Amino acid sequence: MSYTTILTETRGRVGLVTLNRPQAMNAFNQTMLTELFDALETFDHDENIGAMVVTGNEKAFAAGADIKEMAEASTVEMIRQGRVEKWDRIRGLKKPVLAAVSGWALGGGCELAISCDMIVASETAKFGQPEITIGVIPGAGGTQRLARLLGKYLAMEMVINNRTLSAAEALQFGLANRVVPKEKYLDEAIALAQEIAERAPMAVRMAKDAVNAAFETTLTEGLKAEKRNFYPLFATEDQKEGMKAFIEKRKANWKGK
Ligand code: CAA
After folding, report:
1. Which residues of the chain have pLDDT under 50?
2. pTM exceeds 0.85 for this model
3. In 2-44, which residue ranges form alpha helices assigned H by DSSP?
4. Percentage helix, strand, coil for the chain under 3-state DSSP, each rounded to 5
5. CB 24, CB 198: distance < 8 Å
6. Distance 63 CA to ligand 1 centre (A)
7. Parallel, antiparallel, or unpaired for β 14-19 and 104-106?
8. Atom from ligand 1 closest to the CA of residue 129
9. Closest residue by CA, ligand 1 atom 54
10. Among 20, 95, 163, 243, which is most buried by a count of CB atoms within 10 Å?
């Protein structure tokens, strides 16, 4: 499929999606949102792909939803179009998605980054939820995910008072896996994704699902979810191969089944 607002390519077993509306700081209009999730879902279903990376450009990962597109919208139009529900598609992805963030990750851009499974940031990255400055609140998960990731007070400050986090702060507060010089953030994210993409695919999928369960439920239910994902892996060839390879002191040869 050919896209107009994103670029896609594969690097080894990594599917790379680049947001490509630089004239609008990669603000999400409806087309870009649809194209982003179509591309990610296509990679998710491709057995030659083991992980995905979403990135923007050096200046902006993404500056949020397209304000010009929704400025005159009514509540009924927003609800009818399911404007913010569309972002939920990221939760359906089974393979890990990494955000490679440089520059602004604002509003829906920040919400996209924190919906991903890992974040590699350039030292120029800035994370924020400025919706309050335009008379609304985050609608693509920001209030919930930031509160869970950062705790109440910092999340509250970001959402209520437009507190922006620098890359160093994001790392300090656990909102990024690593921060690297701006020349390296994309290569670093792709290398990390490649490492993950080389691992046993079913185990990666089950592991992602189990960690995500921790954000949904009590510890007791989460531990049950973990067990539900642990035992079935003993029905995979890769479990037999992985343990045999360990015992034989050789590298495992994963089959993805
Ligand atoms: N929507 C539409 N256009 C946007 C945009 C957005 N979110 N962000 C930037 N742009 C456009 C600007 O209007 C400008 O276009 P023109 O050249 O046609 O005027 C162009 O991108 C460049 O932007 P700036 O001139 O503003 O660039 P800057 O370097 O001075 O500032 C910025 C960069 C700090 C990111 C600033 O553009 C900004 O604050 N953007 C808005 C951020 C924001 O409020 N995001 C929240 C959106 S609402 C949301 O996301 C809801 C949700 O939960 C889903």
Report:
1. none
2. yes
3. 30-44
4. 50, 15, 35
5. no
6. 5
7. unpaired
8. 46
9. 108
10. 95
